[in-house]
Amino acid sequence: MLRNLTLSVRSGETLVVIGESGCGKSVTLKLMISLLDATSGEVHWEGHHVAGLSRAERDRHRLRFGYLFQNSALFDSFDVFENVAYGLRESGGRSEADIRAVVVERLEEVGLEAEICSKKPAELSGGMRKRVALARALALEPAVMLYDEPTTGLDPVMTGVINRLICQVRRRRSVTSVVVTHDLSTVRAVADRVVMLEPVSRLAPDEPQAIFSGTVAEAFASNDLRVAAFMQGGDASWEREAG
Question: What domains are there in the chain, each with its CATH number?
C-alpha cells in the first residue's frame, strides 16, 4: 500500500529505493511501468500522463523500459535464446539473423557465452538466471531500466557480479535506472540517490511515505532513527520501540 508518495527520477540517474519488506517498493516499480494502475494520483512518463494514453500509446512508450523481475520471470518452457529473443520477436520488424545477433550480443554483455542459448532456465543457477533476465531486459535498448530486488537469493560473489553489471549498463548506455533493494552492498555500489520508504502503518497522519531522499553518504549520516537503523542493517521498528 502506498500513500502520499511523490517520487521523481532524473534522466540518467540511478535511483535506489530502499525500505523494509511490505513498504511498497515493488508496487512502486509496477506503478512506474503501468503494470498496476494507481487508484489515486498520477504517473507521468517524460511529461505524458500515463492514464491519458491509449493502450497502443502506452504499449509503445513501455518498450522504452527494461524490467528485471525479482524472480527473473523467465519462461520455463523456452530455452535461453527464446527468452532473450522474446521482446525482439514481439516488437516485430527484425530478421532471424538480426535477432540471433542481438541475443548473442546481449548475453555476452552480461558475461554469458552463446553456448548457453539451448539451455532451459531450470538448468541454470540463480545468478545465471538473473543475467539471462537482464539480457532479455536489455535486448530492446531501453532508455529506462527497472530492477526489482536484483540480488535477492544470491550469494555475496554473485551479488557483486550483478551490482557490477548494473553499473556497467549505466556506463555503456544512456540509461535511467531505478533499483529496488534491501541489500546495502547494492546501495553502496550503484546509487546516485537513495529514497527510503516507510510502511504506511507506521507513518504519522500527514507524513509522506518517502521519509528520506539523498546521497548514500547522507543516508548513512541521517539523524532519522528509522533511516539510520536500516542503513546499519538493523530493525527500525525495534530501534523505535527500544528508544
Answer: 1-64+142-243 (3.40.50.300), 79-141 (no CATH)
